[in-house]
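STRUCTURE:
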C-alpha cells in the first residue's frame, strides 16, 4: 500500500472517529453514561467500515484485508482472553500487596474466594479456587466474545488492514509501534474530555494511554501475525474492554488513582515486551528457514 493511501485512510478514520466523539461530548457530556454509548459504539465501527470501503474500491486492498477465519485462531482465543485477565487480577494483587486498596468484588482466602459483585456466569458467594478459576474463565470468554462485536469494528481496521501496510513500509516493530500511536490518538477527544483518566486527562491522553496502546499493539499484532486473521485481536480487545476493565475499575483505592493506573500500565508494558520478543524470535526463525 502506498504511503498516500495509508495517510488518506488515517485521515478519514480520524475525521469520522473524532467527529463522533466530539458530538458525544457536546450532546451528552458524560462519556461514561449510557447515553454516550451509541456514539462511542458508532465510532468504534469507523476503522473497519473505512477499511471495507477501501477493499471495495481496490482488489489490492481487498487482498490485504486479514478477515478470513483460520484454524490457528481457535487456540489463540484462549491467549487473547488470558492476557487481559492476568493484567486485571495482577493489578488487583499488587494493589492489595502494597495496601493501595481492596477489590470491590472479591475477598480472597487460602481456601477460596468470596464473590460479592459483578456479572459472573457461575454465580457469586463463597467458591473454592477451582470453581472460581472456572468462573473467571467462563465469564471472561463470554464477555470477550460479546464485546468483540463492537471491538471488531476497530480491529478489522487497525490489525486487519492498517497493520500490514505499516509493517510492510516500516518493518514489524516500528510499524506496530506506529499503529499503537495512531490507535491511541484516535481516542484523543474522549481522553481529553476525561474518559479513562478523569483525574489527569492530559497526562492520560499524551503519556499513559499512548504507552499502553503501543504495548497492547505488540500483543494484538502478535495474535494477528501468528494466526493470519484479525479475529483473535478482536476477542482480546473485547476482553480488555470487559473483564480487564471491569475488575480493575472496581478496585476500592486508598492510594491515588495514579498508583493503580501505573501498576496496570507496568503489567501491560511487560506483556508488550514479551510479545515483542516473540515477534522478533519468529522473524529470526522465518529468515533462517528462508535462507535454507
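SEQUENCE:
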Amino acid at each position: 500500500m502506498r504511503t498516500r493511501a495509508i495517510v488518506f485512510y488515517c485521515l478519514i478514520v480520524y475525521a469520522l472517529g473524532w467527529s463522533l466523539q466530539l458530538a458525544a461530548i457536546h450532546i451528552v457530556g458524560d462519556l461514561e453514561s449510557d447515553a454516550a454509548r451509541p456514539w462511542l459504539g458508532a465510532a468504534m465501527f469507523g476503522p473497519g467500515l473505512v477499511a471495507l470501503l477501501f477493499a471495495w474500491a481496490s482488489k489490492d486492498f481487498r487482498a490485504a484485508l486479514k478477515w478470513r477465519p483460520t484454524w490457528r485462531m481457535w487456540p489463540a482465543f484462549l491467549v487473547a482472553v488470558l492476557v487481559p485477565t492476568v493484567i486485571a487480577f495482577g493489578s488487583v494483587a499488587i494493589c492489595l500487596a502494597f495496601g493501595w486498596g481492596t477489590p470491590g468484588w472479591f475477598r480472597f482466602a487460602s481456601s477460596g474466594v468470596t464473590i460479592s459483585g459483578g456479572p459472573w456466569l457461575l454465580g457469586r458467594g463463597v467458591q473454592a479456587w477451582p470453581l472460581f478459576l472456572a468462573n473467571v474463565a467462563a465469564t471472561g470468554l463470554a464477555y470477550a466474545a460479546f464485546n468483540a462485536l463492537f471491538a471488531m469494528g476497530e480491529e478489522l481496521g487497525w490489525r486487519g488492514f492498517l497493520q500490514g501496510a505499516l509493517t510492510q513500509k516500516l518493518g514489524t516493530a516500528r510499524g506496530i509501534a506506529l499503529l499503537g500511536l495512531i490507535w491511541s490518538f484516535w481516542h484523543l477527544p474522549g481522553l481529553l474530555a476525561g474518559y479513562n483518566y478523569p483525574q489527569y486527562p492530559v497526562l492520560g491522553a499524551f503519556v499513559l494511554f499512548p504507552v499502553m496502546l503501543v504495548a497492547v499493539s505488540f500483543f494484538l499484532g502478535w495474535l494477528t501475525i501468528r494466526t493470519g486473521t484479525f479475529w483473535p485481536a478482536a476477542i482480546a480487545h473485547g476482553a480488555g474492554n470487559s473483564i480487564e476493565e471491569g475488575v480493575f475499575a472496581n478496585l476500592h483505592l486508598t492510594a491515588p488513582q495514579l498508583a493503580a493506573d501505573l501498576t496496570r500500565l507496568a503489567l501491560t508494558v511487560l506483556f508488550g515486551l514479551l510479545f515483542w520478543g516473540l515477534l522478533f524470535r519468529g522473524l529470526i526463525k522465518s529468515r533462517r528457514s528462508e535462507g535454507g
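REMARK: The first helix runs from residue 3 to 27.
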